[in-house]
Structure formats: structure tokens, C-alpha cells
Amino acid sequence: MWDDQFEQSVRTFLPFLAPQEPLEPDAELRDLGLDSLGMVQLLGTLEETYQIRFLDGALTLETFRSARVLWATVEGMLQRAAS
């Protein structure tokens, strides 16, 4: 579904997700420990890793609801950047 860089980046900000536990696509990231400061830091990490910029419309709590939603947002930005 997503690449290893994405999973490693997201896991860094999920203190309640054990290292051996899988990151489920629809798990609520807030339930796994992602807080508002973590969201901002994760945003910066993803922008740097993928050389993208989150548009204002993507800066919502919904974007950071789950790994699936966040990856879909990143993937959409990568596709736009490639065209």
C-alpha cells in the first residue's frame, strides 16, 4: 500500500504502536499517540522526504486520521508533482 519510508516516518510519531505491531491502514493515528505537535512534525518530515508541499486544503485533522488517508494525500501530491 505505501512504501517503507512512509511507514518509518509515521511510526516515529506513534508512541503507542509497539515496534513489532503492524501499522493497520485504518487505525486512528490519534489513538496510537499522534498529537497536534506530532502532526506538525510529521507534516514537515513527509514534505522533506517526498519533496512535496501540503496544500492548505490538506491541512486538516481528517488528513491525519489514519495511515490510509494520509498516504492517499501524499500519493495524490506526488502524482500532481509528476504531471
How many strands? 0
What is the CA-atom radius of gyration, in angstroms?
12 Å
Structural domains: how many: 1
The structure class reads: mainly alpha
CATH topology group: Non-ribosomal Peptide Synthetase Peptidyl Carrier Protein, Chain A
Element-level helix/strand string: HHH
Strand fraction: under 5%
Q: What is the makeup of the main sheet?
A: none
Poorly predicted residue ranges: none
Name of the level-1 CATH class? Mainly Alpha
**CATH arch. level architecture:** Orthogonal Bundle
The CATH homologous superfamily corresponds to: ACP-like
Report how far the terminal alpha carbons are from each other: 21 Å
Mean pLDDT: 95
Describe this structure in words.
The protein has 83 residues and is an all-alpha fold. It is built from 3 helices and no strands. Helix 1 (4-11) runs antiparallel to helix 2. The radius of gyration is 12 Å and the shape is globular. The mean pLDDT is 95.
In short:
With 83 residues, the chain is an all-alpha fold. It contains three helices and no strands.
Task: Outline the secondary-structure elements.
Layout: H1 4-11, H2 36-50, H3 67-82
Descriptive key words:
mainly alpha; single chain; 3 helices; 83 residues; Non-ribosomal Peptide Synthetase Peptidyl Carrier Protein, Chain A
